[in-house]
Amino acid sequence: MDKEKIKCTISYDGSGFSGFQIQPRKRTVHGELERALKKMHKGEPIRIQASGRTDTGVHAVEQVIHFTSPFQLPEGNWKKALNTLLPNDLYIHRVEKVAMSFHARYDALAKEYRYFVLNKKEVDVFQQNYVYQFPYTLDIERIQKACSHFEGTHDFTTFSSAKSTIKGKKIRTLHKVQCIEEGEHIVFIFHGDGFLYHMVRIITGVLLDIGQGRLDPDVIPLLFEKRDRQKVGATIPSQGLYLWKVLYP
Amino acid sequence: MDKEKIKCTISYDGSGFSGFQIQPRKRTVHGELERALKKMHKGEPIRIQASGRTDTGVHAVEQVIHFTSPFQLPEGNWKKALNTLLPNDLYIHRVEKVAMSFHARYDALAKEYRYFVLNKKEVDVFQQNYVYQFPYTLDIERIQKACSHFEGTHDFTTFSSAKSTIKGKKIRTLHKVQCIEEGEHIVFIFHGDGFLYHMVRIITGVLLDIGQGRLDPDVIPLLFEKRDRQKVGATIPSQGLYLWKVLYP
Fold it and tell me: Cα–Cα distance between B112 and A143 in angstroms, integer?
């Protein structure tokens, strides 16, 4: 029987998951997806592949996964059947049948991450899992000036976790780094060809330091040269981070 | 030593609480508040009184509580100390020293509740705990027409839980019942002198039936007369409901 390759665009609220990657006795996005697929395939295990992982507490507006199945179903039926089996904090927005050569991870051209800061003095209990609540005054123009220093191709060793087990150079290209004010929210947009472990959370933390006047925007080129994670501040919380979009050819 | 009476305006995300009222081995708003106060008073139990209870999953934007304390602290210090001891999903916005005669429940003149419906076909995973996601088409003008039938003084037996243990008549006055469209959200506003058990969730459910064309707005006066909970539909979910404001003289 011919198999079909299925691409799904999914979103999840990261608050209730121990991240994406499957782990024994932990509730993960990967685990919930394979549990639903196994049920649908009457006990037959179906392996999924994602565009990449997300950490505990990190959200996804448009994450992409793929799997192959012996089933021949219209796309709408896939969507309906899977969403019925999935929990409320994980939802499949789009199902597409794709070429057997498609791979959610290897075919991804670029990704967009967004980081949301709620910049106000009073705590908003309803946003605790969805933004980083930052009560101090920020100079947005100063942050915007600093953003451009991160655009382009750089060695991001200073701005990624030292614990990363990645092999090879930590060189990545950011096509766009933006900071936008939306009412009480400050949104940081990162569009790039690849992201290192904790990279968005570390860079956003540095941009907040700059916005507070604790760091000069023009020191960034020097920080790139240092290639030392210790030269910049702590990794800011995961709950403000969203995998926003994955781009394919 | 003179005691002082403290009034607090608090907000909480109801998602993580088994309602307001204290219960053994359950995480409740009342329980968390008294735990923080006990800690602050070095083990001495401090009893709180609220304007009223809220059910499991119901949120509060401005709930009001009071307590008495032997401490003499500026209002700002109370706020800071208590918020430090409280969990992230419970926050004290305002602390006021009030007359010893003040009572959060008996002095309340009126309350406002709001119910939030997200009216779109696609599920939004980020709003699952904060709105009632309702995918069907609604005729908002029809709902707005029906709202006025609920305003005024009525016997709300049909529109409140039959399980209620309340004694006496179920007569209440609603000063304002409104339905407003805010983008993809439909907001129901109820302002009244008192609310019966499940009253807002039952009335909003009836208004959604009317908006779907399943019920005629002009049948409401007849439903009031029946005084029978069985004549109307199910109680809709708690996660869309917010205690919005409590009014005092």
Answer: 41
B54-65 pLDDT per residue, tens: 999 999 999 999
Catalytic one of B13, B55, B89, B209: B55
- Looking at the DSSP assignment, which residues form a beta bridge with residue B11? B91
Interchain contact B88–A (C-beta under 8 A): yes
**Contact call for residues A240 and A127 (beta carbons, < 8 A):** no
Residue range(s) of every CATH 3.30.70.580 domain in chain A: 4-98
Q: What is the pLDDT of residues A146-193, one digit of tens each?
A: 999 999 999 999 999 988 766 668 999 999 999 999 999 999 999 999
Q: How many CA atoms lie within 13 A of A9 on its CB side?
A: 16
Q: In B, which residues are within 8 Å of A126 by CB distance?
A: 11, 13, 59, 130
Q: List the single residue in B with minimal CA-CA distance to A93.
A: B122
Q: Chain B, 124-163: which have a CB under 8 Å from a chain A CB?
A: 125-126, 128, 130
What was the ipTM of the complex prediction? 0.93
Whether the Cβ atoms of residue B130 and residue B239 lie closer than 8 Å to each other = yes
**Ranges of CATH 3.30.70.660 domains, chain B:** 110-247
Q: How far apart are CA B22 and CA A205, in angstroms?
A: 40
Say which CATH architecture domain A110-247 belongs to.
2-Layer Sandwich (3.30)
DSSP state of A60: E
- Provide the CATH topology of domain B4-98: Alpha-Beta Plaits (3.30.70)
What contacts 24+ positions apart, CB below 8 Å, involve A47-51? A49/A103, A49/A104, A49/A105, A50/A20, A50/A104, A50/A105, A51/A104, A51/A105, A51/A108, A51/A111, A51/A243, A51/A246
R_g (Cα) of chain B, nearest Å: 19
Residue A11 to residue B93, Cβ atoms within 8 A: no
Set of chain B residues whose Cβ sits within 8 Å of the Cβ of A123: 83, 88, 91
